[in-house]
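Message: I would love a firmer grasp of how sequence relates to backbone shape in proteins. Thank you; the sequence and its tokens follow:
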Amino acid sequence: MEGKRTHSLDEVAALVGGRVIGDGTLRVSGVRSLEEATEEEIAPFTDRRYLGLLETTRACALIVGEEAPSFPRHQIVVERPHLACARAARLFAPQASGFQGVHAQAFIHESSRLGRDVTVHPGAYVGEDSVIGDRVVLYPGAFVGDRVRIGEGTVVHPNVSVLHDCSVGSGVILHAGTVIGADGFGFVRDGDVSVKVPQIGTVRIDDDVEIGANCTVDRGALGTTWIKSGVKMDNLIQIAHNVVVGEGTVIVAQTGVSGSVEIGRGVVVGGQVGIGDHVSVGDRAMIGSQAGVAKPVGSGEVVSGTPAVSHRLWLKTSRLLTRLPVLNERVRRLEKTVDALMRRLDGRD
């Protein structure tokens, strides 16, 4: 394990709130799947369907929800193995670039203020009157416009744009290629001409938000587009102007949220979902992948399909779809039979 960062099983167990079966002093260098783990790594075992892999895995230890008697080596037993695995992986996650400080090839406007221990890589740009908090990292190509506020500990990955007058909280991660504060899609038709509505609002991103690669969060037309604390967004997501996304909500890739939508707290939005403008989604609702949401979704509701309906109803109707050709043929035969009977009754045959 020379050159690798290692931790003992006791250290990992203390972090995840588990107990060690075996040698707690054994040092490990990472977390990997059962199939790919080496003799120096831990693997999660969270599904009994993969029981057979316990005979072939090279992992030196497992993270398990209950002891696995068939595994002859070390184990960390925890109440929630998925969560424990996520926390353990953070111990071994690659560190940020070793470069620190403000590179000579970065541009920082003289009117902007930088906090302590800020890292600004070459090719990054910070405009006028912006405030960058302590321990912020701006990677190459990051663009921070005029009068932007970025809170402490936030990481802005390569080629991210945070445009003028937007604010980003503390502990935020903005992944590569994301654009915060582009103009919303606002036009008024004058005959065959689309007249642009100036987008003079802003974007507010609260603390502990993570936004994936190549996402867009448009500025408000007049007010604010607001991503509240703890929101997690996957890659390739469009958030239109004046949308509000509530605390702790999770949005999966390729979802599009139209203007002035209000999404509540703790909502889960599946991949490739489309939400129409001015729709409200209540707290803790769940929207299935590829759903088209055109009407309000109540708190705690689970919906799927296009147009979105209750998930149970969607499951019933989706099962029927494959049977439609057979049912159609049956109806046609019944129609012919009924027509023949009617002809006999009328004396036409």
About this structure: The chain has a mean pLDDT of 94. Helices lie at 9-16, 81-92, 311-321, 324-345. The longest helix spans residues 324-345.
